[in-house]
Every structure is written in structure tokens, then in C-alpha cells.
Amino acid sequence: MKILVAVKRVVDYNVKVRPKSDGTDVDLANVKMSINPFCEIAVEEAVRLKEKGTATEIVAVSVGPQQSQEQLRTALALGADRAILVNSDEALEPLAIAKCLKAVCDSESPDIVLMGKQAIDGDNNQTGQMLAALLGCGQGTFASELVVDGDKLKVTREVDGGLQTVGLNLPAVVTSDLRLNEPRYASLPNIMKAKRKPLDTTTPADLSVDITPRVSLLGVELPAQRQAGIKVDDVAMLVDKLKNEAKVI
Amino acid sequence: MSILIIAEHDNSSLKPATLNSVTAAQEIGGDIDILVAGNGCQAAGDQAAQVAGISKVFIADDAAYNNALAENVAPLIAEVGASYSHILATATTTAKNIMPRAAALLDVQAISEISAVVSADTFKRPIYAGNVIATVQSSDAIKLLTVRGTAFDAAAAEGGSAAIEAVGSAHNGGISEFVGEEVAASDRPELTAAKIVISGGRGMANGENFEMLYSLADKLGAAVGASRAAVDAGFVPNDMQVGQTGKIVAPDLYIAVGISGAIQHLAGMKDSKVIVAINKDEEAPIFSVADYGLVADLFTALPEIDSEV
């Protein structure tokens, strides 16, 4: 069984981004970049499937700028076998990324595509669903558990009311939620080994994908800031304020 | 302008979340129709027809649409929605699962979780866990949007009398099936609809201690939520998580107990009208957004509150 795992280079989750002074976009100059946390969980799940003997090969893919090679090397250090970079220096929308991934799937024919449920930059939560639509295959989004059962996949999904389990024919797309697993740290020998694993580069044009943007960013701003209120002395004062000042209980 | 809203429902009733999309649609302006796709969903369709300001309700009633499998519902949305200028759904996990799939079938770039309508093609939405608000303009012929429920008031559930039509051929991809679900049964209000929400964090120390929150919640008619830390630690199930990747809530009163206030948690509750924080660490970031902060040990404060209200 072959697994394709998609990863995205994003601002590190510890960084608090701010708008540029002219408000045209967020300021990403000299900001630490990392692999998207949800994608890291997807890579870990792929590696576990290989360790269990279910998967035989893991191909990591990223669609993005040249520097995304760093995140692909991270995926290789965690256990992916080889990597493909679809290089584009334009900011790509989820639909364009899904189309690039579809083209890669057409040549790689994976049984399972694993990816994060959303990237923590755009917070779109779209690419996996779009890829599944383009491939005409099933989707297990927001996955907290994944079980391969013959030629079927059972995916437990985190939904508003609790958990839902779906059965999917293969091939299928699975997007990881936070509790699918806890990713390991790459060991130093594995980081060294990852440098020698194959990493191929292609482009959206090579894949005949039209990446023309459909949505334009007109500007960014800080959200309305909340003012800190007061500290109350004790429970009696708190309950009094809630009853008589805020009138919410 | 013609707007199609995808109903959130459980076949027997229309979920209130649908009404937030109706308000967003009214801000865009134009004829508003609702699509109810389900199995035995006539009752939900009848309720949708009562919503004020709706022209038509389309009911797609077929076994294929049971449990809202994205593989079957997305092609229906793409078929019915193709003639509309806008397709909207409130950003529940059901809509987040289905809408991007429908967008790809229509070859349009969806816009997720809009928090404001600027014009018919321009919208605001939070990015970077709500740290920044982006204004985006769509050039697609069909604007396919999900709507952040807390950003739009619920429209009136009654007062309308829309025409009801059966619609759509049955799409059954045969590539996915519903296996089962574990739904938390509770008499308390839904987190996203409750007027009061009490959430516990890592400071609760274990799942048993959440009983103190349940007890207080039942007195106040509140829902109980949790921080990601509390869910990750296994104190409570995932459906209680409030935050950027969990549920977004904006009740009249939000009480954060033993929650430090990580950015991703604040993103899920900072639009609440009144915020109370109870934490023994007076430096906790949660106090910077709280209207009333109580620096105290929650294990002594909670029983006192319980006896005072």
C-alpha cells in the first residue's frame, strides 16, 4: 500500500503574526517557519502505518515555495521515503493546491492520501475535501482514528456532536485532527539520513495546472481588541457583579 | 442575486445554526432559498419553510443523503446550486466537510468562515487563529461561503411561508458509508447555542472534577465546554472543546475555570459578551480578556459560587 502525505510550510504556531504597517498583508519577514502541525500529525500516521506493515511506501508532497524543501526534509526525517515539491512562488489557494495534488496522485496512484485538516495560516480547511472531489474518491475529514481493513478504510471523525465513523473505499483522502496521534521527534541520525533521500521538483505548469487566483486579498487588520476588566476580591463580589452589574445570571 | 442556503438539520428538525446563514444571506441581499438534503427530512423542510424571508425550500429526500455523507451531498449541492450567485452554510463540522467538496465540483474557490459581509463579493474572515482579520474579494461566478455562526445573529425561525419543492436526483457515489456514531447525550443546551457557557481547563486536574462544572451549569442553564489542554489530557471528550480548532462560542456569559488562555482558546470565545476568569495564577493571559477576574483556587471558589447562585 502506498501513502501520499501532503505537508505545508507555514508560520510556526508559536509566532503571533501582525499586519504589515500598510495593512496589505500579514508581515512574514524574518518569521520562523515550520511544518503545519496538522500535517505533522498526518506524516506520523503514515509512518505508523508503515511500521505496522500496512504501508510499503510513503511519498511526501508539498505545494509551495522553494523553501518548502525544509518541511519535506522534516517529513523525510520522520520516516517518509521520498519527496516531491510542486514549486510555486505565488501564494496558492486551496483549489489550486488540490489540483496540483490531484496531478501528483494521477502519476503516483496512492491508496491513501493523508493531510492535515487545515493549515494554521489561512485556516481554510478545504484542500483535502477538494482533492477528494477531484479524485472522485471518499473523504475522512477531521480524523481521530484510522483503521485499514482489507480494501476499506474505517475513519473515526471528530464532529460537533461527538464522534462519527465512516467506511471508505480505497483510494481515499484522510485529513487529520489533533488527536489522531502525537508526532514523534526526528532523531539526529534520521535527520542526517533524510538529506540523502530523493526529493524531486516539479511545477504547476509542468503538471498543466491553472493556478490563477480566484480570490484577492484586499487587506488585513487586527481584530477588535478586548479591554481587560476588573479583578474581583472574592466569590461574593463576583456573583454580585454578575447579578447586578452585568445582569447575566 | 440569488442565494442558496444549505440547511443544517437532523431530519426531524431544522438546527438553529441554519438561521445564522439566513442573516448573512440577508446582508448580501437577494432571493433566498434553502436546500434540505436528508432521509425522511420533510419535517425539517417544513420548518425551513417557516423561516422569515425565504422564497423556496428544496427538499432532497433520499436514503443516499442520510448522515450527510459528503460524497453524496456535495454533488447535489453542485447540481442545485449551479444556477445561484451564492451558496451559504453555517460552518458546522457537517458544512466544513461538505462545502469545499461541492466547491471543487463547481470549480470555485470557497471562502471559509466569513465573519462579516462587506458587499456581495467581498467578505471578512479570521485567519491565523483569529489573530488577523482578512478582507477578501471573490471573482468566481458562484460565491460559495461558510458562515461563522457567532458572527451573525439568528434570523427569525417563524413568520415565513416558503413554497416547498422536491428536488434533485439521488446522488449515491457508493464510495463511502456511515458506520456509526458516538453522540454525547446531554440535557444541557448545545455549546454553540447556550446563553451561558462554563469551561474547564487543565486546572480541573481530572475528568471527575468536571462534575463541579456540570452541577453549576445545571443551576444556571449553562453548557459546559473545555480547553484543548483538558481534552488532550483526556478529562472530557472532543466535542466539548472550545477554541480555534474546536467550537467557536459567543454566549452572554462565558466562565473560564482553570484555563490559562492560550491564543487558540481565546479565538474560540473572545466574542462572548461577558467573560469571567477564575484562575489561581494572576499572570494567566485569560485575565487580559476577562471582564471579571477572580484570582483564586478553583476548588474552593467553585463550591462557593455553587452555593451563592
* Helix vs. strand class of chain A: alpha/beta
Backbone shape of chain B: globular
Which two protein chains have the largest interface (Cβ within 8 Å of the partner's Cβ), and how many residues from each? A-B, 79 and 89 residues
Helix fraction of chain B, binned, reads 25-40%
Which residue ranges of chain B are poorly predicted, with pLDDT under 50 across at least 5 consecutive positions?
A: none
Give the percentage of residues in beta strands of chain B: 25-35%
Shape of chain A: globular
Find the structural class of chain B using helix and strand composition: alpha/beta
Helicity of chain A, in percent? 25-40%
Strand order of the largest sheet of chain B: 5-9-4-1-2-3-10
The main sheet of chain B comes to: 7 strands, parallel
N→C terminal distance of chain B: 50 Å
Number of strands of chain A: 13
Which strands sit side by side, in order, in the main sheet of chain A?
9-8-7-10-6-1-4-5-11
* Model regions low in confidence, pLDDT < 50 over at least 5 residues of chain A: none
Q: Round the mean pLDDT of chain B to the nearest integer and report it.
A: 96
**Contiguous helical run count of chain A:** 6
Instruction: Give the N-to-C terminal Cα separation of chain A.
Output: 57 Å
